[in-house]
Amino acid sequence: MGLAASEEELRDRASRFIKAELKRAKLTYADLAHRLKEHGLPDESESTVKAKLKRGTFAATFLLATLAALEMDGVRLEEL
After folding, report:
1. 46-55 and 7-24 helices cross at what angle (nearest 10)?
2. pLDDT digits 0-9 by tens, 34-65
């Protein structure tokens, strides 16, 4: 059995995971955008972060920088 049944499901799960982690950390999209600048993504803004998470598609660099910005040591695929 794979991680997801479809690409759409995978997009939704990744987006929901990041949104949940933001909520857990009590951070806004603007907070994340600011932190992403510190992790090598200077062009991110509240609106670009919001759009990416709504769409559910983003580059691996965005995902990795987001995990670093949220100060996550590791993520198990089962958590998605």
Report:
1. 140
2. 999 999 999 999 999 999 999 999 999 999 99
